[in-house]
Amino acid sequence: MIHKVAAFYQFAALPDYRELREPLRAFCAGLALKGSVLLAQEGINGTIAGAVEAIDAFAHELAHGEMFGGRLNNLELKFSTAETTPFGRLKVRLKKEIVTLGDADADPTRQVGTYVDASEWNALISAPDTLLLDTRNAFEVAMGTFEGAVDPDIKSFGQFKDFAAEQLDPARHRRIAMFCTGGIRCEKASAHLLARGFAEVYHLKGGILKYLEEVPEAESRWRGECFVFDERVALGHGLRERDKGHGRDE
Protein backbone atom coordinates (compact mmCIF):
# COMPACT_ATOMS: atom_id res chain seq x y z
CA MET A 1 0.00 0.00 0.00
CA ILE A 2 1.26 3.45 -0.93
CA HIS A 3 0.67 5.93 1.88
CA LYS A 4 -0.22 9.52 1.05
CA VAL A 5 1.49 12.11 3.26
CA ALA A 6 0.11 15.61 3.86
CA ALA A 7 2.26 18.40 5.31
CA PHE A 8 0.22 21.49 6.14
CA TYR A 9 0.06 24.72 8.10
CA GLN A 10 -1.72 28.03 8.30
CA PHE A 11 -1.41 31.01 10.59
CA ALA A 12 -4.98 31.90 11.50
CA ALA A 13 -6.80 33.11 14.61
CA LEU A 14 -8.03 30.03 16.49
CA PRO A 15 -9.07 31.29 19.94
CA ASP A 16 -11.03 28.04 20.43
CA TYR A 17 -8.04 25.81 19.66
CA ARG A 18 -8.38 23.91 22.95
CA GLU A 19 -11.95 22.92 22.11
CA LEU A 20 -10.89 21.82 18.62
CA ARG A 21 -8.40 19.22 19.84
CA GLU A 22 -10.74 16.33 20.60
CA PRO A 23 -13.02 16.70 17.54
CA LEU A 24 -9.94 16.85 15.30
CA ARG A 25 -8.33 13.84 16.99
CA ALA A 26 -11.54 11.82 16.67
CA PHE A 27 -11.92 12.77 13.01
CA CYS A 28 -8.33 11.70 12.23
CA ALA A 29 -8.70 8.47 14.20
CA GLY A 30 -11.87 7.66 12.30
CA LEU A 31 -9.88 7.86 9.06
CA ALA A 32 -7.04 5.73 10.50
CA LEU A 33 -4.58 8.57 10.04
CA LYS A 34 -1.24 8.69 11.81
CA GLY A 35 1.10 11.61 12.38
CA SER A 36 1.34 14.80 14.39
CA VAL A 37 -0.87 17.90 14.46
CA LEU A 38 -0.19 21.04 16.51
CA LEU A 39 -2.94 23.47 17.44
CA ALA A 40 -2.36 26.93 18.89
CA GLN A 41 -4.15 30.23 19.08
CA GLU A 42 -2.09 31.34 16.07
CA GLY A 43 -3.02 28.42 13.81
CA ILE A 44 -2.35 24.81 12.83
CA ASN A 45 0.72 22.83 11.77
CA GLY A 46 1.19 19.16 11.07
CA THR A 47 2.14 16.16 8.98
CA ILE A 48 -0.06 13.10 8.72
CA ALA A 49 -0.24 9.98 6.58
CA GLY A 50 -2.82 7.41 5.56
CA ALA A 51 -4.80 6.03 2.65
CA VAL A 52 -5.24 8.34 -0.33
CA GLU A 53 -8.99 8.72 0.23
CA ALA A 54 -8.50 9.38 3.94
CA ILE A 55 -5.94 12.14 3.38
CA ASP A 56 -8.19 13.74 0.77
CA ALA A 57 -11.11 13.70 3.21
CA PHE A 58 -8.94 15.23 5.93
CA ALA A 59 -7.71 18.04 3.68
CA HIS A 60 -11.28 18.82 2.62
CA GLU A 61 -12.46 18.98 6.23
CA LEU A 62 -9.71 21.43 7.22
CA ALA A 63 -10.37 23.82 4.36
CA HIS A 64 -14.11 23.46 3.85
CA GLY A 65 -15.65 21.55 6.75
CA GLU A 66 -17.66 22.78 9.72
CA MET A 67 -14.94 22.03 12.27
CA PHE A 68 -12.88 25.14 11.44
CA GLY A 69 -15.70 27.12 9.86
CA GLY A 70 -13.74 28.34 6.85
CA ARG A 71 -10.86 29.77 8.90
CA LEU A 72 -8.32 27.50 7.15
CA ASN A 73 -9.21 28.57 3.62
CA ASN A 74 -5.61 29.55 2.83
CA LEU A 75 -3.95 26.34 3.97
CA GLU A 76 -0.39 25.69 2.81
CA LEU A 77 -0.66 22.03 1.85
CA LYS A 78 1.85 19.67 0.23
CA PHE A 79 1.44 16.00 -0.63
CA SER A 80 4.02 13.27 -1.01
CA THR A 81 4.05 9.46 -0.73
CA ALA A 82 5.73 6.79 1.38
CA GLU A 83 6.12 3.08 0.79
CA THR A 84 5.52 2.33 4.46
CA THR A 85 3.73 4.41 7.06
CA PRO A 86 6.13 7.14 8.25
CA PHE A 87 4.41 7.53 11.64
CA GLY A 88 3.74 5.08 14.44
CA ARG A 89 0.74 6.81 16.00
CA LEU A 90 -1.54 9.83 15.97
CA LYS A 91 -0.83 12.89 18.14
CA VAL A 92 -2.88 16.08 18.34
CA ARG A 93 -1.19 18.52 20.72
CA LEU A 94 -1.88 22.00 22.06
CA LYS A 95 1.00 24.48 21.90
CA LYS A 96 1.72 28.12 22.66
CA GLU A 97 3.09 28.54 19.10
CA ILE A 98 2.78 26.25 16.07
CA VAL A 99 6.45 27.00 15.42
CA THR A 100 8.43 28.31 18.37
CA LEU A 101 10.36 31.55 17.98
CA GLY A 102 9.46 33.38 21.18
CA ASP A 103 8.95 36.83 19.65
CA ALA A 104 5.53 38.38 20.22
CA ASP A 105 6.19 40.94 17.47
CA ALA A 106 6.62 38.21 14.85
CA ASP A 107 3.00 37.88 13.77
CA PRO A 108 2.60 36.42 10.25
CA THR A 109 -1.09 37.34 10.24
CA ARG A 110 -0.09 41.02 10.46
CA GLN A 111 3.04 41.21 8.29
CA VAL A 112 5.11 38.65 6.45
CA GLY A 113 7.85 38.57 3.83
CA THR A 114 7.25 38.44 0.08
CA TYR A 115 6.42 34.95 -1.18
CA VAL A 116 8.51 33.68 -4.09
CA ASP A 117 7.28 30.73 -6.16
CA ALA A 118 9.65 27.83 -6.78
CA SER A 119 9.79 28.72 -10.50
CA GLU A 120 11.18 32.19 -9.67
CA TRP A 121 13.51 31.20 -6.83
CA ASN A 122 16.66 30.57 -8.89
CA ALA A 123 16.55 34.04 -10.41
CA LEU A 124 16.19 35.70 -7.00
CA ILE A 125 19.03 33.86 -5.30
CA SER A 126 21.34 34.39 -8.30
CA ALA A 127 21.22 38.18 -7.85
CA PRO A 128 24.53 39.39 -6.38
CA ASP A 129 22.87 41.69 -3.83
CA THR A 130 20.74 38.93 -2.30
CA LEU A 131 21.73 37.32 1.02
CA LEU A 132 20.53 33.71 0.89
CA LEU A 133 19.65 32.46 4.36
CA ASP A 134 18.84 28.94 5.54
CA THR A 135 16.59 29.22 8.60
CA ARG A 136 16.77 25.54 9.60
CA ASN A 137 18.71 23.79 12.32
CA ALA A 138 22.36 22.83 11.82
CA PHE A 139 21.76 19.08 11.44
CA GLU A 140 19.19 19.75 8.70
CA VAL A 141 21.56 22.08 6.85
CA ALA A 142 24.26 19.41 7.01
CA MET A 143 22.08 17.03 4.95
CA GLY A 144 21.44 19.52 2.16
CA THR A 145 20.98 23.19 1.32
CA PHE A 146 21.02 25.67 -1.56
CA GLU A 147 24.31 26.71 -3.13
CA GLY A 148 25.76 29.74 -1.36
CA ALA A 149 23.30 29.76 1.53
CA VAL A 150 24.32 31.14 4.92
CA ASP A 151 24.00 28.59 7.72
CA PRO A 152 22.96 30.29 11.00
CA ASP A 153 24.39 27.30 12.91
CA ILE A 154 21.48 27.03 15.34
CA LYS A 155 20.31 24.01 17.30
CA SER A 156 16.67 25.09 17.41
CA PHE A 157 14.57 27.66 15.58
CA GLY A 158 14.11 29.61 18.80
CA GLN A 159 17.78 30.67 18.46
CA PHE A 160 17.15 32.37 15.11
CA LYS A 161 16.35 35.73 16.69
CA ASP A 162 19.72 35.69 18.48
CA PHE A 163 21.49 34.94 15.20
CA ALA A 164 19.63 37.78 13.51
CA ALA A 165 20.51 40.24 16.28
CA GLU A 166 24.20 39.33 16.17
CA GLN A 167 24.83 38.70 12.48
CA LEU A 168 22.27 40.62 10.41
CA ASP A 169 22.13 44.38 9.89
CA PRO A 170 19.27 46.21 8.12
CA ALA A 171 21.77 48.78 6.79
CA ARG A 172 24.01 46.15 5.16
CA HIS A 173 21.59 43.35 4.32
CA ARG A 174 19.05 45.16 2.19
CA ARG A 175 17.66 42.08 0.45
CA ILE A 176 17.29 38.74 2.22
CA ALA A 177 15.93 35.54 0.68
CA MET A 178 15.22 32.79 3.19
CA PHE A 179 14.00 29.22 3.01
CA CYS A 180 13.01 26.30 5.23
CA THR A 181 11.53 22.82 4.81
CA GLY A 182 7.86 23.60 4.21
CA GLY A 183 7.63 27.37 4.62
CA ILE A 184 6.33 27.76 8.15
CA ARG A 185 9.56 28.80 9.86
CA CYS A 186 10.12 31.44 7.19
CA GLU A 187 6.72 32.94 7.96
CA LYS A 188 7.86 33.62 11.53
CA ALA A 189 11.44 34.52 10.59
CA SER A 190 10.40 37.00 7.90
CA ALA A 191 7.87 38.63 10.25
CA HIS A 192 10.64 38.94 12.84
CA LEU A 193 13.05 40.63 10.42
CA LEU A 194 10.41 43.01 9.10
CA ALA A 195 9.59 44.02 12.68
CA ARG A 196 13.32 44.80 13.15
CA GLY A 197 13.42 47.15 10.17
CA PHE A 198 14.76 45.01 7.33
CA ALA A 199 13.57 46.47 4.02
CA GLU A 200 13.27 43.51 1.65
CA VAL A 201 12.60 40.03 2.95
CA TYR A 202 11.62 37.20 0.62
CA HIS A 203 10.90 33.56 1.31
CA LEU A 204 10.38 30.43 -0.76
CA LYS A 205 6.65 29.69 -0.94
CA GLY A 206 5.99 26.10 0.06
CA GLY A 207 9.59 25.70 1.17
CA ILE A 208 12.23 23.28 -0.03
CA LEU A 209 9.62 20.55 -0.49
CA LYS A 210 7.72 22.60 -3.06
CA TYR A 211 10.98 23.46 -4.85
CA LEU A 212 12.02 19.78 -5.01
CA GLU A 213 8.56 18.89 -6.29
CA GLU A 214 8.40 21.50 -9.06
CA VAL A 215 11.92 22.37 -10.23
CA PRO A 216 13.60 19.89 -12.61
CA GLU A 217 16.75 18.38 -11.15
CA ALA A 218 18.80 19.62 -14.13
CA GLU A 219 17.88 23.23 -13.24
CA SER A 220 18.18 22.85 -9.49
CA ARG A 221 20.36 24.93 -7.18
CA TRP A 222 19.68 22.48 -4.34
CA ARG A 223 22.48 20.21 -3.17
CA GLY A 224 21.94 17.12 -1.03
CA GLU A 225 18.72 15.93 0.56
CA CYS A 226 15.97 17.57 2.57
CA PHE A 227 15.48 16.29 6.10
CA VAL A 228 11.87 15.55 7.05
CA PHE A 229 10.61 14.85 10.56
CA ASP A 230 9.30 11.34 10.03
CA GLU A 231 10.56 7.83 9.36
CA ARG A 232 11.45 8.64 5.75
CA VAL A 233 14.32 10.77 7.14
CA ALA A 234 14.99 12.70 3.92
CA LEU A 235 13.58 13.40 0.46
CA GLY A 236 15.21 14.29 -2.83
CA HIS A 237 14.00 15.75 -6.11
CA GLY A 238 10.49 14.72 -7.03
CA LEU A 239 9.99 14.15 -3.26
CA ARG A 240 11.51 10.69 -3.62
CA GLU A 241 12.49 8.89 -0.45
CA ARG A 242 16.20 8.63 0.21
CA ASP A 243 18.06 5.35 -0.19
CA LYS A 244 17.30 3.33 2.96
CA GLY A 245 20.91 2.15 2.92
CA HIS A 246 22.02 5.64 3.93
CA GLY A 247 20.04 6.16 7.10
CA ARG A 248 20.49 8.84 9.69
CA ASP A 249 23.44 8.41 12.02
CA GLU A 250 22.57 7.75 15.63
Automatic annotation (TrEMBL):
<dbReference type="InterPro" id="IPR020936">
    <property type="entry name" value="TrhO"/>
</dbReference>
<dbReference type="Pfam" id="PF17773">
    <property type="entry name" value="UPF0176_N"/>
</dbReference>
<dbReference type="InterPro" id="IPR036873">
    <property type="entry name" value="Rhodanese-like_dom_sf"/>
</dbReference>
<protein>
    <recommendedName>
        <fullName>tRNA uridine(34) hydroxylase</fullName>
        <ecNumber>1.14.-.-</ecNumber>
    </recommendedName>
</protein>
<dbReference type="InterPro" id="IPR040503">
    <property type="entry name" value="TRHO_N"/>
</dbReference>
<dbReference type="Pfam" id="PF00581">
    <property type="entry name" value="Rhodanese"/>
</dbReference>
<keyword id="KW-0819">tRNA processing</keyword>
<dbReference type="GO" id="GO:0016705">
    <property type="term" value="F:oxidoreductase activity, acting on paired donors, with incorporation or reduction of molecular oxygen"/>
</dbReference>
<dbReference type="InterPro" id="IPR001763">
    <property type="entry name" value="Rhodanese-like_dom"/>
</dbReference>
<keyword id="KW-0560">Oxidoreductase</keyword>
<dbReference type="GO" id="GO:0006400">
    <property type="term" value="P:tRNA modification"/>
</dbReference>
<comment type="function">
    <text>Catalyzes oxygen-dependent 5-hydroxyuridine (ho5U) modification at position 34 in tRNAs.</text>
</comment>
<comment type="similarity">
    <text>Belongs to the TrhO family.</text>
</comment>
<feature type="domain" description="Rhodanese">
    <location>
        <begin position="126"/>
        <end position="220"/>
    </location>
</feature>
